[in-house]
Amino acid sequence: MIGFITRAQIAEQEVNVRDILESVAENLPEDYDLTELIEVLNRYRKHPVNLNKTTPDELKTFVFISPLQISNFFAYLKENGNLIDVLELQSIDGFTTQTIQNLRPFITLNPATEYEKFTLRNIFHHGENDLLMRFTQIVQKQNGFTDLAGNRYLGSPERFQMRYRYNYGTIASAAIVLEKDAGEKFIGKPFDFISGHISLSKLNRIRKLVVGDYSLQFGQGLTMWSGFAFGKGPDVTSVAKKDLGLRPYASSNEYAFLRGVSATIAINEQINITPFVSYRNLDASQDTGLDGTLVQSTINQTGYHRTPAEIENRNSLSQLVYGANAQYNKNELVIGLITYHTKFSNGFVTQKPIYDKFGFTGRSLTNVGAYYNYTYKNIYFFGETGKSLHAGLAYLNGALISLSSMVSAAITYRSYPKNYHNFFNQAFAEATEAVNEKGLYTGLNIIPDKHWSFSFYGDYFQFPWLKFRVDAPSKGYEILSQAVYTPNKTFKVLARFKMENKQQNTDFDPPINFLDDVKKSSYRVEINWQLNKKWTFQNRLEVGQYQKGDVNPESGYLLAQDVDYSPMFSKITGNLRVAYFNTSGYNSRIYAYEDDVLYSFAFGMYSGKGVRTYLNLKYNLFKKLNIWARYALFIYKNVESVGSYLDEIQGNKKSEIKVQLRYQF
Q: What pLDDT was estimated at residue 16?
């Protein structure tokens, strides 16, 4: 009976992790790597967070908890003492049934164990080792791998990734990541990308220490935020970022990190400082300036080194970054100050397009910033101001408000000038970078009871200067409304409407150029239901529409059926999708989250007309050895080729195989 309960709990926890990932995945950029988030959730499943001994930084790692909920949690502990039962969370303002349900697999109230005690013996005997190897390849031959006379891929079509990671609770970690992308050379240097780190925590006044690759996330991401950040989503409280400070980096993304050494040092109970230094070689397309020196206009962020041009640009630009962050924490108030200097081996020059007139030029840049957050009763205030010396001043301010036990609201105003320069900027914005933008965001979460939840937001934004394909100042807005009905743990219905209106150069050729409104809207209905303890199903219908100016709109739809098979006592589990899509073209394409192997995630693009299917299987070879396999296939109708340029495939099919092996010891 004990074994049965344990297996049931594990199955339920895996579903929770998948639901959490899907809820955040659609608000991420296409190249976001969810490895770190998945790793954190899986580690907390094995070693739950002790709520009576936790810290704000630890709770911030849970993407489904808002900063106001975290602040209310510690205010409750301060007033009432330690929790006796997890169900006490229901008494804390803002903690909904869904929040508590998401938290339960990852928390405990048990006292500290030997696992949390730092001794040499424990490091060797209780540490966890995790070795993962992954192989991926597109089955059909792409044009880039043929003997083209001009540009082509010089390497092989396989993608390899290997990762070794060691963890000793939250005290010590080490990792090394090796990766070769499809199209990169394998002979001579098997892995094009190498990343690694050693990290220690909770060493008296040294709260964190990382040597190697790391990320820094402070304030609201306006001054220093390496890596990616979550964007707008149905949970309106996500507009307030949860800065995690210094973190070790163990992802395969080849751009979004710093490389060197950093530490967070406690000066006293209220003040800590985080000095950091980083030196890296980046990819950049370079040219010779008027004075004969090398110059560049942009940094290449893809990490691809497949073609002669990409190989030539590899590691051509060195970047030195050094600075410090100081943070003051007392009760409900946090104030932080950041300053750092970035120096490049070669200078940047202005690009020819007029929209880039105010872009960064030169070889060095100094950034300073200040951020705050403060909780007053049921309101969480937050904001940040950033300044690039000799250039623009940017800022954002906002508040999360708990209007009642059923209603919470968010409001944020942002102002980012066209000449704000920053290479580590991930503040809340409509554009990919927080520059040349002003905007006002408002949103509501309404949860009238444990079965219903509603979300609404509206975001109005302006772009005071020109943009790519926008030859005049422009403006736009985005709105979303969502309803979720959950009558019980085995059935859920979601309905969502989202619309975005931006401006873009007209496609006509008038005597005087003008901007057209570009409207994108989508309607989604999704049903999740569990037949029994083995079988879970998801049905999805999504309709999208695109219209530019007065031209007839393009439209499309997606019908998808997902099936998940997770028997409690079987060595094999898996899931399957069969989907039919029909869109007028690329502009009316539909994106949909797809299940994948562990530590990987896919976000399929459904464009044109055809069928999409994939099958994921997991097999437990031994207690500590697991293998995953994935086969995914697109079959398009009425086409002679798939893709374009070097990625073009002759025929109407595109399929991919993936095999992953994981050994834990």
A: 59
- φ and ψ at residue 279, rounded to 5 degrees: -135, 125
Environment class of 424 (CB within 10 Å of its CB; exposed 0-12, middle 13-18, buried 19+): buried
Distance between CA atoms of 261 and 255, rounded to whole angstroms? Answer: 17
C-alpha–C-alpha distance, residues 466 and 391, integer Å = 18
Q: Which of 105-114, 176-185, 305-314, 408-417 has the lowest mean pLDDT?
A: 105-114
As given in the structure block, the two tokens for residue 397 are 């301010």
- Under 8 Å CB-to-CB from 420, ≥6 apart: which residues? 386, 388, 391, 392, 393, 394, 434, 435
Residue-level pLDDT at 117: 63
User: 444 with 407: CB under 8 angstroms?
Assistant: yes
**3 state DSSP class of 24:** helix
Contact (CB, 8 A) for 394 and 415: yes
pLDDT value of position 115: 52
Task: Flag whether pLDDT at 388 surpasses 50.
Answer: yes
| pLDDT confidence of residue 339 | 98
> Does the structure show a pLDDT above 80 at 108?
yes
Spell out the residues 6+ positions from residue 131 whose beta carbon is closer than 8 angstroms to its own: 162, 163, 164, 662, 663, 664, 665
> Please, which pLDDT band fits residue 292 given cuts at 50, 70 and 90?
confident
The pLDDT mean for the chain works out to: 90
Q: Name the CA radius of gyration of the chain, rounded.
A: 25
* Contacts of residue 140, Cβ cutoff 8 Å, sequence gap at least 6: 642, 649, 650, 651, 653, 654, 655
The per-residue DSSP string of 276-309 comes to EEEEEEEEEEEEE-TTS-EEEEEEE-S----SHH
Strand partners, 356: none
Structural contact between residues 195 and 161, judged by C-beta atoms closer than 8 angstroms: no
Which 3 state secondary structure label does DSSP give 59?
Answer: helix
378: Cβ contacts below 8 Å, ≥ 6 apart:
68, 93, 401, 402, 403
CB 419 within 8 A of CB 358: yes
To the question of pTM greater than 0.85 for the whole model, the response is yes
Give the Cα separation of 7 and 317 in Å (integer).
Answer: 52
CA distance 412 to 28: 20
Contacts of 579 (CB under 8 A, 6+ apart): 558, 559, 560, 561, 592, 606, 611, 612, 613
Mean pLDDT of 144-169: 90
Q: Which residues of 369-400 are buried (b: 16+ CB within 10 A; e: fewer)?
A: bbbbbbbeebebbbbbbbbbeebbebbbbbbb
In contact, 456 and 443? CB cutoff 8 Å: yes
At residue 660, the 3 state secondary structure works out as strand
CA–CA dist 645, 452 (Å, integer) = 48
pLDDT at 251 over 60: yes
pLDDT for res 12: 47
Q: How far apart are the first and last CA of the chain?
A: 27
